[in-house]
Amino acid sequence: MKITVRRSAIGFVCIMMTCVANAQHAPNDDKQEETIRSLISQMTLQEKVSLLHANSKFYVSGIKRLGIPEWALSDGPHGVRAEINRDNWAYAGWTNDSATCFPPGTALAATWNPKLAYERGIVLGEEARFRKKDILLGPGINIIRSPLCGRNFEYMSEDPLLISKMSVAYIRALQSKDVAASVKHWLANNQEEHRDSIDVYMSERALREIYLPGFKASVTEGGAYTVMAAYNKFRGDWCSENEYLDRKILRKELGFKGVLMTDWSAAHSTEKAALAGLDLEMGTDKKDYQEWYFANPLIDAVEAGKVPVSVVDEKVANVLRVMMRTKMLDERSREKGKMNTPEHQRAAYNDAAEAAVLLQNKGDLLPLNFNKIRSIAIIGDNATRKHCGGGLSSEIKTLYEITPLEAIRKKFGATVKINFAQGYDKQSTFKEGSNAGQASSDKVDWKLIDEAVEVAKESEVVIIFGGLNHDFDTESSDKKNMDLPYGQDVLISEVAKANPNTVVVIIAGSPVKLSGIVHRVPAILWSWFGGMEAGNAVADVLSGKVDPSGKMPFTLPVSLEQSPAHALGNFPGRNLKVNYEEDILVGYRWFDTKKITPQFPFGYGLSYTSFEFGALSTDKAVYGKDEVVHVKITVKNTGPRYGAEVAQLYVSDPVATVLRPAKELKAFEKVFLQPGETKTVTLHVKVADLAFYDESKKDWNVEMGDFILQLGNSSGNISRTLKIVVK
Ligand code: BGC
Known about the structure:
The structure is a single chain. With 727 residues, this protein is an alpha/beta fold. It has three domains: 33-77 and 115-327, Glycoside hydrolase, family 3, N-terminal domain (TIM Barrel); 342-566, CATH 3.40.50.1700; 609-726, Immunoglobulins (Immunoglobulin-like, Sandwich). It is built from 18 helices and 29 strands. The strands form seven sheets. It has a six-stranded mixed sheet with strand order 4-5-6-7-9-12. A hairpin with a 2-residue loop joins β2 and β3. It binds beta-D-glucopyranose. Residues 75, 137, 184, 263-264, 393 line the site of beta-D-glucopyranose (BGC).
């Protein structure tokens, strides 16, 4: 593998995409700080404050006379959003803003391949620069706590390590193109219901072990230039004015020197927010920008002696630092950007193809041999539905979007008779992007089912494209339940009775209940919202051109009640308060510790080929607390096709003074193998990362004794274990 050593603008050395140190300080930082001080010394208070609040929906004023340009922000996270009017939410109707649309966050995490996150960051950076944007509002990295959260599709996983690896790679790549990332939403924005009024409570341990690590890695390893404060409250205080989160943790502990901005309309005060460490106010719902908390009221607060000028200077310095790191003050040397190149589209395809998770394949129905099949039934609304334009703030005006039916027709239509039936109807008056409440979802449409059964009978094989759409997976509301909507359970079972060769493709970005269909059909493929290349990617996986190598980035429960927050009845909270009683037992940590068998476990996914893990070994048997465990494993492709397996290394601490999860993911690697090929992979786990957060000591604690390394290809399938000792 090529070794690249480069110094990032923020001052850490990255080797093979692994940052070995984060000093947040590079030699030329001193020069930069000097320039920042000099610029600030030339500003009036009014000018300083003008840099700390928006002057329209997505722009912040610059200071022309000092050569400081206007700041341009744009939504991400999986594409650069089309241009929005400066003073209202309508699209501006530009003709050059059709972007590359990637599959959203859960799909990216399902690839378990941080290289793809890196590639995505590069593309997003280039397209953001083409659009002259300075900050891209992503990645979205909140923990998937409940299957119902409307924004799960934008987020990545229930596991902090998987999130961290993806987020760090994405941010580093994006920022290498002179565009600042904005990691969101800081913090505990794990539901959309009451998101702008809910007060979240959790233990310090849950904060440190589950909810914080993704943000910590994004800032300290990824070097994120900006962070977006969430709508909700955390332990009684709004996230945008939360002294504990913003000042103590983000600034002091994580050493964050970038810009903390609000989510759109998430500011609630002037003095308190200013003192807690907020830098930039965005999206406030007041027409006159001068009336915003961080506009005239901030000038008044400084003049009244309530907010020291030094606090304002600190904020301005944060803004200028991000501007300089993204070369805003040196446009000539800045990335120029490109839009929608074939390479960009290829990157979107790669993500969609690698994200597909094969959940079930009885009798090896898949892959389908289209050279032999003469007729196929394609059924379901999702066979023809385009999804890139949905979901609210993450919606993309994509250059094109290939649906599954289009792709299958184009690739195989010349030789295979394709019989399409709608199967079910979207049935909703919900308008995507309107916040108008959720779709009605349970009506069984027998007319459509009868038509589907007819085409199923006439065809050799059936593919049903079902799942969800952005009426369900959307910002600003949560799903009401985990069911497959629109009577799909009935549709699928009727079609499968008519033709047992039925494959179900689930297109969704959050968990749905599959217990009604797993016994009815032989094959289930989960193919996510697939971005602009969705159809091409899923067709290639179904036909076997691409071997499925995705793994679930979250647990798929049998029913909602299995899932921790719901088992304990604390979602979405009561009286605008929610207490995360499941504590650190989020996702598979809950299922495995409580010995609950889900429908499909975290990390699960089949392939058309087969793999075997060989011996698991470590460089030593006994480790000190500051050492690193080097774990060697071998993976063999024992089947007939090229494919990839994800080696997942979990660790457990069998004897501890506190409850520890049955297992926790500590390292992973996706390994690509030719038939018969064996590769040896070394995974590295710091002993320090085996610690739990000890509330009594207010510090991390690695207790001496045995730890069990568990190697598997899902949290539910461990094939090798090995004991190590920490002394
Ligand atoms: C969302 C953010 C988004 C912002 C700007 C908010 O409603 O929560 O994620 O970046 O809008 O569109």
